[in-house]
Amino acid sequence: MNFFKKKNKTKNSQTANASVKQPVKNINELFEKFKGSADFLSFPYPDKNGYVVSYYKSVVNPDQMHQDIFPLLAKHPREKLQELKKLLPVEEMKLTDDLKVIKESVMTGAVVIQPYKGADVCLLLPCASSEKRQPSVPEVEFSVVGPKEAFVESLETNINLIRKRLPIPQLKTKEFRVGDLSHLRVVVIYLEGIADQQLVDTVVQRIEEIHFDVIVDTSFIGQMITDDRNSMFPQLVDTERPDRLASVLAEGKIGIMADGAPHTLIGPSTITTFFSSFEDYYLPWNIGTFFRMLRLFAVTFSIFSSPLYVAILTYHYQVIPTDLMPMLIASRAVIPLPPILEALLLEGTIELLREASVRLPTKVGTTIGTVGGIVIGTAAVQAGFVSNVLLMMIALAALASFTTPIYQIGNTVRLIRFPFLVAAQLYGLFGIAICSAFFLSHLLRLKSLGRPYLEPLYPLRMQDLKDTFIRKGFQSMGKRPLFMRPEDPIRAKPKEKKSHRDIDE
Asked: Are the C-beta atoms of 35 and 42 separated by less than 8 Å?
């Protein structure tokens, strides 16, 4: 009995799915599908012999409906659609009988006006609700110096923030609909005459080739258009700062925006880009260079500190200085665990605390991260599970990993420490060298939108070194990066030498 019920239920579901996939033949069938939702309205206005108005009340702007559209329909109840189109104060209206256009427009906030019920030709009025928040202070890429504006979830607002900084007609946008079910609005933004057209075509082609049911954020797009989808290294910069996007667009790079995403993808990118904060450009070049070098040192220390501890104490204790040896012996005298388990225990604890503090509410998360680290670290040392030397090194390594200005590369630094730990336990310093060679070979092969990921180190381009590990002054960066292959390579004309001195000289 149950078998037949399940069989009938399966047949019914298959029949329903088949009916959903059947093409709609006319506008009546289309509206019948819409009426399955409680928020879809279709009614005659202003009376039974007037127009037929249909829309989703959850996605239209009610103020615009009641202030602009309904009063005018009541004032001109018998006008033809062509004449009505001239009277309505709405931009981008469409007079069409294309069922696909009608369906897409209604789902994105359009109002359908028919002269009578069942009419094939109808007037589409864009009336989408514009609920949005105002630009706020950047939270992920916060800077002490510089503008305090960040992208929001509104695509129009984000484009406005860029056009405010680049008020030129060369700023071009190309819009797409991505996602078989979500139909997310995605915009590719670039500077015509500067960005390499081949690069623009590559980005456009990869976005058009995306076939997935639901795309809700630019992070989805970034994972689908990258050159190596299995790499743990981010290949596109994710930024929430309009000033950063405007600056790199002037270099010839491409931005990818999406409606509902408060951040933008930038590409192509090199590995040095992820260690440069945009605040560096608001500071004198020598101070900005110092901070960049400090971040690179901090990331290197974060990756290699605990693997070196494991390798030296396991295989190469001869390299430990004589003055340091008594302290290490005393700190490990009562530790029952080998160095690798000791390091993994502390690294795992740090990651648990970090993940817990992120998932909890802000105030509680801060307390958990601070108090939990102090209590657990002190208890582990007193209980004899870990040495105080390793605890200090792990804490410094965790602190150093927070210096990365781009959140994505910080996650990569956290992850790659574990392969180095395993290699250090297996082969000591030789294992660390093998693991380093493996990651280096991977980076040498890696590309970002077809451009070398290690540029300007590989291939070596001396001109592009002016804005990598060091940041030269603006007067020294008169040309755009070579690896971008910009159509206009000149950023600033060289300053002419003075033929005579000024009066005050």
From this structure: yes
Residue 152: alpha-carbon gap to chain centroid: 12
Sites in the chain below the pLDDT cut of 70: 1-22, 362-371, 494-505
Q: β-pairing, 254-258 with 40-45? A: unpaired
Residue type, 453: Y
How many whole angstroms separate alpha carbon 256 and alpha carbon 22? 34
For 109-124, write each residue's pLDDT tens digit: 899 999 888 888 999 9
**Of 367, 415, 409, the residue nearest 140 (C-alpha):** 409
Q: E-strand spans in 225-304? A: 237-239, 254-258, 264-267
Q: Roughly what angle, to the nearest 10 degrees, separates helices 429-445 and 285-314?
A: 140
Q: Which of 62, 87, 85 is nearest to 72 (CA)?
A: 87
Cα gap 386→342, rounded to integer Å: 6
| Each residue's pLDDT tens digit, 401-436 | 888 888 889 889 989 999 999 999 999 999 999 999
Instruction: Convert 322-369 into a string of H (helix), E (strand) and C (coil).
Output: CCCHHHHHHHCCCCCCCHHHHHHHHHHHHHHHHHHHHHCCHHHHHHHH
- 256-297: pLDDT as tens digits: 999 989 999 999 999 999 988 888 899 999 999 999 999 999
Our separate counts of H helices and E strands in the chain read 17, 12
* DSSP states along 151-198: --S-HHHHHHHHHHH--STTEEEEEEEE-TTT-EEEEEEEETTTS-HH
